[in-house]
């Protein structure tokens, strides 16, 4: 008996020892509760494969400094399991290292396993081999699919458990997500879809992660799954289950970009407004999607037609720089919200509607009260009488009064600095324009001239099925035998190809006849070109290039990619037409580029293929270019300016920078012509700009891709372009501006570089915006420029309070300071 007692005591003690650091994550209908504390949590999405492992500590530190408690990430199935049962968790796919980096910074993590993730990621994160498994049917009650999904989900959960990374094990992960927004597209899946969601829930639960599971945009989420909201605003959202707290997994901080589309922009004022409204209306967890968007390296971008940059206009830009004033304006909001955590999660709530879209919310506990005054009108400012005091609340804004008296924050009043980032030439090169190039042609002879492929079929096959995502490129080749008197030979004829909307290059008898690609917003086109065919044998070779596989929509996985049926030869005879459909001819297929098979992109290219330094071709399609360069000095982020090139793929020292396409100009119709006004509901097109410019001209070259001494850039140019203008540059902060009222404490910072000059400073009633400030008659007695020169120049940052004590008397009703500092 004694033995059993001590045996059980030992087990109990070791249980507690082992779980001594365990974090207990629960919730009630109002809050997430962590170790007994009811929380107001601010989170941000950072996707590990969209940056490099070397960038993670800095990104996460900046997220923490920006006031985040939590980092949210998806898990990218197709990146981790590119070939069935062959896994990759190396370099920027090192999920465990990423989670540990979050832990090292003392932040929590939210793991959105999916494993369908959408995310503007190739095929939404599904591996293409999954599509090619016999009998599979995605996102429904289908054994083949469910087996694979469970296999991958279990693998991830086990990996995480082995490293004790769930909060229940003392790790940072407080929430896990299964599926993604299935509720948005569920209708067409019928009963199978409903059963599938129930299965997802049971499967997830069976994994015993010890933290709550969430499902986003899933109004019928089965208990105990917590249904969460995604959108630009989620203040009106209510989870389906009364014991689920109100959580917002994706607050879109801007939007993604598509080839041919404008540059998205969501104002700091509107983003802060959406967050403040959410907590005014009882939210407990809010996540910025994205907090850092980053880069779609390799062939990871989804689509079709998602750009290589995934900047997203997020609080941290593509390279990791604070996107100011957004980053700083939100940081101040987070401080205020965190200071009210107790009242927000415990207080009695009183909402009062004052009419004209103005409302107040009071959270009160015995000890303290906190208040929100909000004006949801999109044009009319309001003066709100509250507790006997008049508060000025601009249109489309929320004022936060942590003590119900003093306004600590208003979402429309931005005091954080505005940073203007500039591109600087590469000082490590003697002459930045002097990159010297060698080149060689892509070998297309076999396909365009000989029509030789590796696979054959008497039909046109979906590019996904044939290429299995091994490459963007697939050759479709067929022969046509034509008698001399065939109207196609005798008269005028055209080749007509229906395409699923990616890029097509057509060759007839070895000769290039033309290319086509989708216009912005359309997904299908018909290529039609006049051709001269010979009596006897003719060869038609079509090279299709995908630009990211579709990632969203009901049954998006089934969309056929590449060349579609029919492929036709059309003879024009008088007013009539003779059409020959080639779709059921014998077709040969060849996947990929010859240059890639020969690893031309590698620094020490192993193949014997020669590069030529002579007569560098310009505007020649299917061409490889190579140059060497020195890494820019310092540690500012590096980009390569590819203006002058058409479309293709770029590598530095063998690392893929992703697809490039600077010749794709942002469509005039995708920009907003009216001035950008933060007031009123945001949508992805609102405030978008940069039409008429290349959709993406600069491409991120992470510092960790570079080495001392000689570096190599390799380009595969598909359309034809001119590489002579290509330049490496650094992205640095050029100027920093502040424009704030008397009484505010502000900061000016050049982000790790010294402030070199004060270009403008005026305390009084200065007008204009950063870059074009102007003084007015009302100005203080002291010289603001020389005061700030003393205070700031030579330092990396300076902070001070705006007051008459500091800047001298100014005789205007409302006093402001405007400063422009040069970095
Ligand atoms: C959501 C989706 C995300 C992302 C976002 C748009 O619908 O859940 O993965 O695609 O839209 O950026």
TrEMBL record:
<dbReference type="Pfam" id="PF17834">
    <property type="entry name" value="GHD"/>
</dbReference>
<dbReference type="InterPro" id="IPR041392">
    <property type="entry name" value="GHD"/>
</dbReference>
<dbReference type="GO" id="GO:0005975">
    <property type="term" value="P:carbohydrate metabolic process"/>
</dbReference>
<dbReference type="InterPro" id="IPR048913">
    <property type="entry name" value="BetaGal_gal-bd"/>
</dbReference>
<protein>
    <recommendedName>
        <fullName>Beta-galactosidase</fullName>
        <ecNumber>3.2.1.23</ecNumber>
    </recommendedName>
</protein>
<dbReference type="InterPro" id="IPR008979">
    <property type="entry name" value="Galactose-bd-like_sf"/>
</dbReference>
<dbReference type="Pfam" id="PF01301">
    <property type="entry name" value="Glyco_hydro_35"/>
</dbReference>
<dbReference type="GO" id="GO:0048046">
    <property type="term" value="C:apoplast"/>
</dbReference>
<keyword id="KW-0326">Glycosidase</keyword>
<dbReference type="InterPro" id="IPR000922">
    <property type="entry name" value="Lectin_gal-bd_dom"/>
</dbReference>
<keyword id="KW-0964">Secreted</keyword>
<comment type="similarity">
    <text>Belongs to the glycosyl hydrolase 35 family.</text>
</comment>
<feature type="domain" description="SUEL-type lectin">
    <location>
        <begin position="740"/>
        <end position="823"/>
    </location>
</feature>
<keyword id="KW-0052">Apoplast</keyword>
<keyword id="KW-0325">Glycoprotein</keyword>
<dbReference type="InterPro" id="IPR001944">
    <property type="entry name" value="Glycoside_Hdrlase_35"/>
</dbReference>
<dbReference type="Pfam" id="PF21467">
    <property type="entry name" value="BetaGal_gal-bd"/>
</dbReference>
<keyword id="KW-0732">Signal</keyword>
<dbReference type="InterPro" id="IPR017853">
    <property type="entry name" value="GH"/>
</dbReference>
<dbReference type="InterPro" id="IPR043159">
    <property type="entry name" value="Lectin_gal-bd_sf"/>
</dbReference>
<dbReference type="GO" id="GO:0030246">
    <property type="term" value="F:carbohydrate binding"/>
</dbReference>
<feature type="signal peptide">
    <location>
        <begin position="1"/>
        <end position="22"/>
    </location>
</feature>
<dbReference type="InterPro" id="IPR031330">
    <property type="entry name" value="Gly_Hdrlase_35_cat"/>
</dbReference>
<dbReference type="Pfam" id="PF02140">
    <property type="entry name" value="SUEL_Lectin"/>
</dbReference>
<dbReference type="GO" id="GO:0004565">
    <property type="term" value="F:beta-galactosidase activity"/>
</dbReference>
<keyword id="KW-0378">Hydrolase</keyword>
<dbReference type="InterPro" id="IPR019801">
    <property type="entry name" value="Glyco_hydro_35_CS"/>
</dbReference>
């Amino acid at each position: 008996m004694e033995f059993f007692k001590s045996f059980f005591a030992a087990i109990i003690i070791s249980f507690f020892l082992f779980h001594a650091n365990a974090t207990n994550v629960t919730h009630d209908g109002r809050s997430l509760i962590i170790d007994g504390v009811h929380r107001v949590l601010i989170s941000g999405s950072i996707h590990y494969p969209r940056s490099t492992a070397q960038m993670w500590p800095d990104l996460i530190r900046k997220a923490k400094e920006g006031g985040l408690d939590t980092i949210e990430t998806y898990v990218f199935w197709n990146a981790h399991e590119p070939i069935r049962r062959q896994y990759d968790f190396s370099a920027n796919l090192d999920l465990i290292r990423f989670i540990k980096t979050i832990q090292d910074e003392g932040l929590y993590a939210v793991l959105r396993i999916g494993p369908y993730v959408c995310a503007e990621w190739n095929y939404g994160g599904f591996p293409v081999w999954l599509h090619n498994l016999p009998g599979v049917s995605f996102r429904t009650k289908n054994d083949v699919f469910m087996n694979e999904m469970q296999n991958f989900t279990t693998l991830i959960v086990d990996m995480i458990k082995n490293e004790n990374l769930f909060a229940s094990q003392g790790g940072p992960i407080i929430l896990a997500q299964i599926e993604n927004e299935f509720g948005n597209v569920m209708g067409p899946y019928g009963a199978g879809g409903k059963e599938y969601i129930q299965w997802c829930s049971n499967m997830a639960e069976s994994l015993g992660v010890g933290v709550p599971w969430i499902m986003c945009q899933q109004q019928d989420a089965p208990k105990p799954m917590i249904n969460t909201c995604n959108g630009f605003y989620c203040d009106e959202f209510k989870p389906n289950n009364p014991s689920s707290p109100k959580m917002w997994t994706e607050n879109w901080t801007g939007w993604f970009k598509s080839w041919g589309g404008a540059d998205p922009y969501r104002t700091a004022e509107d983003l802060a407004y959406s967050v403040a409204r959410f907590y005014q209306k009882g939210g407990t967890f809010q996540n910025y999607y994205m907090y850092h968007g980053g880069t779609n390296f390799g062939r990871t971008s989804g689509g079709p037609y998602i750009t290589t940059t995934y900047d997203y206009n997020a609080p941290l830009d593509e390279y990791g720089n604070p996107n100011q004033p957004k980053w700083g304006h939100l940081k101040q909001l987070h401080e205020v919200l965190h200071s009210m955590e107790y009242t927000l999660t415990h207080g009695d709530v009183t909402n009062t509607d004052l009419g004209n879209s103005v409302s107040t919310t009071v959270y009160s506990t015995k000890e303290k009260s906190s208040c929100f005054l909000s004006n949801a009108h999109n044009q009319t400012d309001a003066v709100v009488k509250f507790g006997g005091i008049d508060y000025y609340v601009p249109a489309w804004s929320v004022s936060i009064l942590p003590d119900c008296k003093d306004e600590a924050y208003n979402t429309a009043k931005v005091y954080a600095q505005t940073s203007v980032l500039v591109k600087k030439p590469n000082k490590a090169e003697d002459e930045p324009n002097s990159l010297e190039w060698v080149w060689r042609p892509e070998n297309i002879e076999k396909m365009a001239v000989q029509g030789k492929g590796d696979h054959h079929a008497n039909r046109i096959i979906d590019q996904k099925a044939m290429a299995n995502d091994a490459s963007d490129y697939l050759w479709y080749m067929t022969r046509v035998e034509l008698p001399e008197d065939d109207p196609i030979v005798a008269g005028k004829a055209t080749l007509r190809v229906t395409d699923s909307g990616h890029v097509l290059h057509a060759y007839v008898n070895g000769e290039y006849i033309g290319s086509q690609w989708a216009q912005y917003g359309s997904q299908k086109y018909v290529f039609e070109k006049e051709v001269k065919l010979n009596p006897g044998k003719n060869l038609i070779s079509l090279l299709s290039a995908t630009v990211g596989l579709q990632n969203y929509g009901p049954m998006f996985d089934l969309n056929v990619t590449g060349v579609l049926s029919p492929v036709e030869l059309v003879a024009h005879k008088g007013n009539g037409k003779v059409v020959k459909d080639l779709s059921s001819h014998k077709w040969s297929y060849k996947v990929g580029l010859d240059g890639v098979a020969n690893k031309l992109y590698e620094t020490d290219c192993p193949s014997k293929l020669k590069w030529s330094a002579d007569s560098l071709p310009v505007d020649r399609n299917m061409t490889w270019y190579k140059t060497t360069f020195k890494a820019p000095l310092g540690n500012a982020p590096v980009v390569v300016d590819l203006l002058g090139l058409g479309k293709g793929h770029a590598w530095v020292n063998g690392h893929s920078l992703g697809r490039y396409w600077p010749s794709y100009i942002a469509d005039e119709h995708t920009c907003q012509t009216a001035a950008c006004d933060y007031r009123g509901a945001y949508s992805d097109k609102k405030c978008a700009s940069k039409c008429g410019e290349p959709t993406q001209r600069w491409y991120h070259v992470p510092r960790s891709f570079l080495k001392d001494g000689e570096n190599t850039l390799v380009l595969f140019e598909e359309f034809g372009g001119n590489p002579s203008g290509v330049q490496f540059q650094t992205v640095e902060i050029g100027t920093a501006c502040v424009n704030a009222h008397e009484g505010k404490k502000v900061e000016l910072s050049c982000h790790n570089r010294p402030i070199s000059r004060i270009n403008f400073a005026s305390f009084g009633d200065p007008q204009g915006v950063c870059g074009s400030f102007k003084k007015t008659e009302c100005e203080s007695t002291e010289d603001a420029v020389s005061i700030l020169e003393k205070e700031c120049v030579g330092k990396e940052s300076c902070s001070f309070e705006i007051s008459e004590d500091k800047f001298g008397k100014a005789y205007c009703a409302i006093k402001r300071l405007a400063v422009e500092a040069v970095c």
